[in-house]
Write a structure and sequence with these properties.
2 copies of one chain form a homodimer.
Chain A lengths: L19 H12 L16 H18 L6 E5 L2 H13 L5 E6 L2 H10 L4 E7 L23 E4 L1 E2 L4 E2 L11 E4 L16 E5 L10 E5 L1 H4 L12 H6 L9 H18 L2 H21 L5 E2 L10 E5 L3 H13 L14 E4 L6 H17 L16
Parallel strand pairs in A: 2-3, 2-4, 4-7, 7-8
Antiparallel strand pairs in A: 1-9, 5-6, 8-9, 10-11, 11-12
Helix pairs in contact in A: 1-7, 2-7, 3-4, 8-10
Chain lengths: 380, 380
């Protein structure tokens, strides 16, 4: 069996594991970026080298996603949370309304923040179903008058993922792809705007990708303060003020890895599918012990969320997994349970090892009627 | 003579050189943070370890600056530029006005951004003097009705530094200390708020320190969107949403270095003074060749800005300095000339070597009446 190190067995919900070869290059860059001769932390954001970093990164993103040269690729700060507020601050200033899907924890946060700066309409809410499924197209209430339509492609907490593109073609479609951008190909030209913080599939925490269609950008106001002004950021190629140089360089290395080592989004999607399949299989093969949280049709290829018979057994599972070298498997603090996040950086072998572990755990664990942890010492 | 590596001869205006021992620890952390066993890039911001990082960092800042426990220390994103806008967005919503000093390039930027969100009064402008000096107290036009008074303690572009605390005691004093925070002790309790991006003396680009007096925070609105809401950030101890984990950890290491290796702000100030003295001396000893830009009384201990007889000789200087191993010496693109930034991370030996180089260059360079670069080949 392939020997994996601790970083490679990290199933954290985010910041997530990065590819080993990217970590190695960043390890080197911390003391010396080869082509510059200085630590990545001491290189000026106004240097020619960094302008090239941004230029190549923009190109790599467009190339990987199959987007035309007219698409703007921005690297901003503040995470998806800043985008939650920037959207209504930019688009709902004149009293217009926007349509939002509430499909889980993070779209709830998006709605909560956006409501402070504009008027929203709920296109659908999964709250009454405890966010265990996504809406059908027929269930969506979408207005042709909406300034934009917003949804989150992958709910990391609940492990739900849209496997289609919802929304009307006559309303600007805006999607938070924080947890699945660059994990698979998609019809990305159907979006007016896509945004994603880096710390899942793309890089370290501290930078957010914002991808704008030119015709959409031209409709945005240009008189806002620079830090919330998409025009100012686009015109400056993300160097409006000092950008997070290290985080942006890291993202460049991830895009190079996707382009050169993986061979594009089609290949990374296959790899991600393999990981998801093997974990969902481990769940379904032991359906009396493991319960997947999401409706099967809406299962996420990024976050495999499941429960064990009770909270005590879940704790025992996490402890045994920790001893076996796995980390980051605890579910989100809002719902508990188990979450295996299998972002781009994670090797197929890691998911296979976890699936093996799950099988062994379910077999070796012989619960009494009381399912107490006290019965577990036999398991190691 | 002490042998310095390329990072230690980096006089960049920012991002600036970090201490060698911090770089070494970050080099290690890129693959494995010793006490965690994972890459710094894969550690959850919700982990207990990271909560401790933030907790110790807050304490270290208060300890180094001599501030009471009631002071809030925030780590935000968006740089000083975001703070430029957040101040009026938080404090001038009801039509009040604020007093600003315009002492150089960066205070000009602060004013430019702030004007988009509120009403300002100019307390003084150095524009007619080409920003070659700072105001006297008598020159400042300060209003008792101002919502706050804002200035920048060190103008990195022009090399000007306030060596006193301007402003009224009955108006909240807010200072952008981006380029000199933690470089020397100060009367920090006289400020309602201090902010500073990290990439000069404190850490890498991508995080901004915001230090707020509790009584001032309590006067700020709490209904703003989270990413521009000081209360939300303070209540969450900077983990309102995913913070820039790597940048924050780097800042922690710099504060440990200041505390344990340097021995506090008094000691780092002595070191910074030594560096500044030796470079200004090199200028003053060859006053026919080097011209310091700033009025002597307002000279910065962080950015030594000077000119040579003409732009061609300046280019020759930069080229020869580059060959001698120095980097980052070009002046800001807005004014040209030479700038030696001597932030905390730079060793005294590096400034001494640069001073030696300046002396040699001025002696060996024998300008003709036309001061052309063509005469330079003799210099190597």
């Amino acid at each position: 069996m392939m020997k994996l190190n601790a970083n490679q067995l990290n199933f954290s919900g985010g910041p997530g594991a990065l590819p080993e070869s990217v970590l190695q290059q960043l390890h080197t860059a911390m003391l010396c970026v080869p082509e510059v001769g200085l630590s990545i932390l001491g290189i000026s954001h106004r240097s020619e080298w960094f302008a090239q970093v941004v230029h190549e990164l923009e190109d790599n993103i467009r190339h990987l996603m199959g987007l035309p040269a007219s698409t703007r690729v921005l690297m901003m700060q503040g995470g998806a949370t800043q985008q939650f507020s920037m959207l209504p601050m930019n688009l709902l200033r004149n009293g217009q309304s926007a349509d939002y899907i509430h499909s889980g924890y993070w779209s709830g946060k998006a709605i909560h923040e956006a409501e402070k700066s504009g008027k929203l309409q709920l296109a659908w809410s999964g709250k009454s179903d405890q966010f265990a499924r996504l809406p059908t197209d027929a269930e969506l209430q979408l207005s042709a008058q909406a300034a934009y339509f917003h949804y989150i492609s992958n709910e990391t907490v609940e492990g739900l993922q849209f496997h289609r593109v919802p929304g009307r073609e006559d309303v600007p479609r805006i999607c938070d792809m924080s947890s699945d951008l660059l994990s698979a190909p998609g019809a990305f030209n159907r979006y007016a705007m896509i945004y994603a913080h880096a710390q899942k599939n793309i890089g370290p925490a501290g930078v957010t990708l914002v991808i704008l269609r030119d015709d959409f950008l031209s409709c945005l106001p240009s008189d806002l303060p620079g830090f919330i002004n998409y025009h100012a950021q686009a015109d400056a190629h993300s160097i409006y003020n000092t950008p997070p140089v290290f985080a942006i360089y890291s993202v460049l290395l991830v895009t190079r890895w996707l382009r050169d080592e993986i061979g594009g989004l089609h290949n990374i999607a296959k790899r991600n599918q393999q990981k998801a399949d093997c974990l969902y299989q481990a769940i379904d093969n032991h359906a009396d012990f493991y319960r997947g949280r999401a409706a099967v049709a809406d299962r996420s290829n990024m976050n495999v969320v499941f429960n064990l018979p009770n909270a005590e057994i879940e704790q025992a599972f996490l402890q045994a997994a920790h001893q076996a070298g796995f980390s980051g498997l605890n579910g989100h603090r809002s719902i508990g349970g188990i979450r295996a996040s299998i972002y781009n950086g994670l090797e197929v072998a890691a998911a296979e090892q976890l699936a093996d572990f799950m099988q062994t755990f379910s077999k070796r664990y012989k619960p009494s009627r009381s399912h107490t942890v006290g019965l577990l010492p036999a398991f190691a």
